[in-house]
Amino acid sequence: MNHTGNAPFSEITKPPQRLPVEIAGVSLWQATLAQPEAAITQWQAWLAPEERQRAERVTRPALRHRVVAVRALLRGLLAYELGQEPAISPASLRFQTDTHGRPHLAAPFTNGTIRDFNLSHSGDKLLIGILYSTAPQSWQRIGVDLESLQRSRDTARLAHRVLCAREQHTLEGLEHEERQRRFLHYWVLKEAFSKAVGTGFSLGFDAMDFDIDTASVPCARALPEPHRPDDWTLQFLPLGQPFVAALALGA
User: End-to-end alpha-carbon separation of the chain, Å?
Assistant: First the structure.
């Protein structure tokens, strides 16, 4: 991404960076939410009234800045990727949500350039995935998820709630650190898939069965009906320690 000229982030010191992942019709971006105060102030004007109100309800300044940064970074990237001739203002973008609350671009920005998008954040790290109209037609949705290995979790309790029996078996006998790492790899796959589908945790995470060992890329052995494993492309993303991240693309 060229952050010069009319690019929305040309004036800030910590712009989004594109991940070195080559997937046809897909771009993946990482950014920090720990942005300069001047950027947060500038970005307030990009937000829709309801987004500003949501941020204003957050009492802690650091968390309020994160809320602003998440929405502004998403708006800036989408505006830039939608095209610069004529330039599109991040503030002009409009969104609508489906019955499950999943956001999509609204008219007049449904011109086919961007088919879908999704985001995830953990701490100060933000991950954004954009699916373009040039992608294969079998990919109508994109989901991404990002988690930190440094976050404290009761892995044993969570595993019984969100992993299928076969996945739980792979955790048995592992040392604590490796068990945490493997659990998170399953978790980000399930989150990325559920976010792509748009139904979230209600989809039934323990009804998903992912294989992360026998191939160079992860794959689904079983998914909740009516979804079929062969319809989905999955991939782990190279964000570096302490983060684990995954991408899901499908119908």
Answer: 27
List Cβ neighbours of 64 (8 Å cut-off, separation of 6 or more): 55, 56, 58
Residue closest to 19 by CA, chosen among 108, 130, 97, 94: 130
For residue 42 the two structure tokens come to 């500038």
Closest to 31 (Cα-Cα) out of 131, 115, 109, 146:
146
Rounded Cα distance, 210 and 212, in Å: 6
- Bridge partners of 105, per DSSP, are 95
Element (H, E) at 51: helix 49-56
> What does DSSP say about strands 243-250 and 17-18: parallel, antiparallel, or unpaired?
unpaired
Q: What is the pLDDT of residues 168-196, one digit of tens each?
A: 999 998 998 899 999 999 999 999 999 99
Q: What pTM does this model have?
A: 0.92
| DSSP H or E segment with residue 31 | strand 26-32
Looking at residue 87, the DSSP 8-state letter turns out to be B
| H or E stretch covering 75 | helix 61-82
Q: Could you report the per-residue pLDDT of 120-153, keeping only the tens digit for each?
A: 999 999 999 999 999 999 999 999 999 998 877 7
Tokens read off for 208: 């998903």
31 and 129 Cβ atoms separated by less than 8 Å: no
What string of DSSP letters covers 145-209? EEEETTS---HHHHHHHHS-HHHHHHHTT--HHHHHHHHHHHHHHHHHHHHHHT-GGGG-GGG-E
Angle at 170 between CA 122 and CA 221, to 5 degrees: 80
Distance of alpha carbon 186 from alpha carbon 193, whole angstroms: 11
